């Protein structure tokens, strides 16, 4: 315990790391860090070194270059520049890989449904089951399940990683744009607007990968909905009815969620504007004894924001409970 601390030898983010197939599939390259974290609290020096593709400096530089290309292209064609095009070009390779992983994951889910249906149908007919057929049934259920687990975890890991990269790149792009802009251009925007861009809009980018996965899963879900009545029969209609009700509820809550987020952004902008006004005119506030008036204004805005925040978490709790019920 009294000896000198030795840094981890396996640097997952380093280009020189030789990660084998087994280590890549089962994420064993992270075992050293997890074991160390179990033994004692982790320090900054314990963290694995980032690769160049995960460093914010490189991500911001690449996104800024693509954004400048998009602006120039938009000027030539007489249209508005689209930031999503620059982001898509930046993560094109990751998006293609994620799409392939997600499609294989969903395809294995359909394979499992069909395999279980064949197994149940065979049991209902009361036919004799020889050893070869048993092995085939077990293989048709076990192998797709194993493949689905691997592809699910890797697609989910890549989705989260893309979200973190995108959030870092967008926040860095906002900072770079602000520092390189002229004062006259910055005067067109309030401090609250810029804070909202970083704290609300850019922060939501880390969920983009998960949302992309849900969008890719939708066509597969439609295929499953079509297969269920054909394979199972009319009893599956109750499940389809439940799915339809959940879809309608989810659409309504999504609209409510969007309205709450927009209202939160407006309230945050107003609250920051009031605080900026108080700080800039603190002498006048003290001279004319306006403290109580401004205190009431700030408290009212803060109370309204807390109400919106409670509604927001109500929707989050609903989504958590709904997903738990479906997976159960």
UniProtKB/TrEMBL annotation:
Family: Belongs to the ABC transporter superfamily. ABCC family. Conjugate transporter (TC 3.A.1.208) subfamily.
PROSITE patterns (UniProt xref): ABC_TM1F
Subcellular location: Membrane
Domain of life: Eukaryota
Natural source organism: Actinia tenebrosa (Australian red waratah sea anemone)
Record domain ABC transmembrane type-1: where: 145-291
Stored Pfam families: ABC_membrane
Xref: PANTHER family: ATP-BINDING CASSETTE SUB-FAMILY C, MULTIDRUG RESISTANCE-ASSOCIATED PROTEIN LETHAL(2)03659
Protein name as it appears in the record: Multidrug resistance-associated protein 4-like
Parts of the chain that traverse the membrane: 95-120, 132-151, 212-234, 240-260
Gene Ontology CC entries for this record: membrane
Keywords: ATP-binding, Membrane, Nucleotide-binding, Transmembrane, Transmembrane helix, Transport
Main localization, broad class: membrane
Lipid bilayer topology: Multi-pass membrane protein
GO MF annotations, alphabetized: ABC-type transporter activity; ATP binding
């Amino acid at each position: 315990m009294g000896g000198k601390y030795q840094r981890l030898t396996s640097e997952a983010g380093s280009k020189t790391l030789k990660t084998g197939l087994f280590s890549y599939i089962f994420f064993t390259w992270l075992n050293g860090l997890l074991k160390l974290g179990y033994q004692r609290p982790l320090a900054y020096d314990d963290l694995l070194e980032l690769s160049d593709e995960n460093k914010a400096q490189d991500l911001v530089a690449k996104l800024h270059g693509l954004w400048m290309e998009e602006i120039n292209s938009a000027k030539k064609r007489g249209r508005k520049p689209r930031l999503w095009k620059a982001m898509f070009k930046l993560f094109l390779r990751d998006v293609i890989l994620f799409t392939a992983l997600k499609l294989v994951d969903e395809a294995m889910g359909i394979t499992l449904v069909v395999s279980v249906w064949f197994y149940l149908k065979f049991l209902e007919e009361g036919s004799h089951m020889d050893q070869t057929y048993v092995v085939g049934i077990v293989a048709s259920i076990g192998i797709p399940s194993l493949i689905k687990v691997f592809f699910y975890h890797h697609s989910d890991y890549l989705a989260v990683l893309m979200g973190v990269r995108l959030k870092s790149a967008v926040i860095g792009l906002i900072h770079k744009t602000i520092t390189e802009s002229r004062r006259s251009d910055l005067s067109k925007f309030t401090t609250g607007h810029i804070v909202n861009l970083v704290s609300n809009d850019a922060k939501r980018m880390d969920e983009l990968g998960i949302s992309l996965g849900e969008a890719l899963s939708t066509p597969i879900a439609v295929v499953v909905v079509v297969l269920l009545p054909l394979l199972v029969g009319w009893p599956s209609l109750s499940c389809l009815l439940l799915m339809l009700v959940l879809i309608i509820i989810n659409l309504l809550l999504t609209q409510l969620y969007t309205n709450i987020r927009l209202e939160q952004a407006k309230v945050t902008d107003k609250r920051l504007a009031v605080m900026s006004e108080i700080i800039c005119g603190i002498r006048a506030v003290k001279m004319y004894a306006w403290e109580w008036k401004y205190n009431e204004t700030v408290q009212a805005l803060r109370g309204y924001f807390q109400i919106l925040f409670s509604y927001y978490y109500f929707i989050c709790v609903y989504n958590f409970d709904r997903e738990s019920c479906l997976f159960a």
